[in-house]
Write a structure and sequence with these properties.
Blueprint lengths: L2 H4 L12 E5 L3 E6 L16 H8 L1 H5 L5 E2 L8 E7 L2 H12 L3 E10 L6 E5 L2 E3 L12 E3 L7 E12 L2 E10 L6 H8 L15 H9 L3 H7 L6 E8 L3 E4 L4 H8 L5 E3 L1
Parallel strand pairs: 4-11
Antiparallel strand pairs: 1-2, 2-4, 3-4, 5-10, 5-11, 6-9, 7-8, 9-10, 9-13, 11-12
Length: 263
C-alpha cells in the first residue's frame, strides 16, 4: 500500500469542528471538516468557519487583528486552510499566492484507473452559463475564452472495490480557478466519486437540491460528498503542513468489500 493509505494510523477522529494545525501571531493553519461552510451565505444561516474563527481569535481582533481566509474550500471539500490574522500578513500571503509561492496539494478519489502515472492538464475554465444555457448556475467547464488553468496530477494508488476500479490521485494546482481540480479530472475521464456536478450525471445535483441525500444518490455517487481533500500547504520560506486522508474517505478506501490494491 502507498503512504497515503499507511497514514490511516494518524487520521484524526472525524469531527464537525475544525482543528488548528499551526498558529503564530500572524497566521494559522486549520484543518476543515467536510460540510462546514467557509463563509456565510445569508443572515442567520448555518455556522461557518469564518464565524468560528472570529470567535476563536476574538482577542486578536479586539486588538487590531482580523481573519482573512487565504485559500477557500468548497463546503464539501475537507482539509488544510491558511488564515491570516493581520492585514500585513494577508497582503503578504496574497502576493505569495499571485507569485505561486504557496504550494497546495489535494488528494482525490476518482472513478477508474488512469492510464498515466502522472499528467498535466492545461485547459481554460469558465462558468458555462456565461456562454450557453446551463441548468446549474455555478457549473464550470472548459472553454477557450475561460481563465487559464493548469493542474498536475499523480496517481498515488489504484484499487478495486466491489469489482469496480478506483484510484487515489494527488492534484497540484498551479492556478486557483473555481472547481479547477474537479473540472480537470472530469476532463480526463476520471471524475471524483461523490461529485454531484461533474460526476456521472449533473441531474444528481438537481436531485440533491430538491430531495437531499437519498439511497438512489448513494448508489450512484457512492459517498455523500465529493471525495476531495486539501492535504498539504507549503509557504516558501515559512513552513509546510500536511493533513492525512480524513476518516470518512479513509474508511471508504480501507474497509471496502473485496478490495485489491495496486501499486
Amino acid at each position: 500500500m502507498s503512504d497515503v493509505i499507511a497514514e490511516k494510523e494518524k487520521a484524526r477522529v472525524w469531527s464537525p469542528d475544525f482543528s488548528v494545525v499551526a498558529e503564530t501571531d500572524d497566521y494559522a493553519v486549520v484543518d476543515k471538516p467536510p460540510f462546514l461552510l467557509v463563509h456565510p451565505t445569508k443572515p442567520g444561516g448555518p455556522r461557518t468557519l469564518w464565524s468560528e474563527l472570529r470567535n476563536l481569535f476574538a482577542f486578536e481582533i479586539a486588538n487590531g487583528g482580523q481573519v482573512s481566509i487565504i485559500n477557500r474550500l468548497d463546503r464539501e471539500t475537507s482539509g488544510l486552510m491558511l488564515i491570516a490574522k493581520t492585514s500585513a500578513t494577508a497582503r503578504r500571503f496574497g502576493l505569495l499566492m499571485q507569485e505561486q509561492r504557496i504550494r497546495k496539494e489535494y488528494l482525490a478519489i476518482v472513478w477508474g484507473w488512469p492510464e498515466w502515472d502522472a499528467t498535466t492538464v492545461d485547459a481554460p475554465i469558465a462558468r458555462l452559463g456565461e456562454f450557453r444555457p446551463s441548468r446549474i448556475w455555478l457549473k464550470q467547464g472548459i472553454h477557450r475564452q475561460g481563465a487559464a488553468a493548469l493542474t498536475q496530477f499523480v496517481v498515488e494508488e489504484r484499487f478495486i472495490r466491489a469489482e469496480e476500479r478506483f484510484a487515489i490521485v494527488r492534484a497540484i494546482p498551479q492556478t486557483g480557478r473555481t472547481h479547477q481540480i474537479r473540472v480537470h479530472l472530469a476532463l480526463l475521464g476520471h471524475a471524483i466519486i461523490g461529485d454531484k456536478i461533474y460526476g456521472p450525471d449533473e441531474n444528481h445535483y438537481l436531485d440533491f437540491i430538491k430531495n437531499g441525500w437519498t439511497a438512489e444518490l448513494e448508489r450512484a455517487l457512492l459517498v455523500p460528498r465529493h471525495a476531495l481533500h486539501s492535504s498539504r500547504i507549503e509557504i516558501e520560506g515559512v513552513g509546510s503542513w500536511k493533513s492525512p486522508l480524513p476518516i470518512d474517505l479513509l474508511q471508504w478506501v480501507t474497509r471496502p468489500p473485496n478490495a485489491v490494491y495496486i501499486r
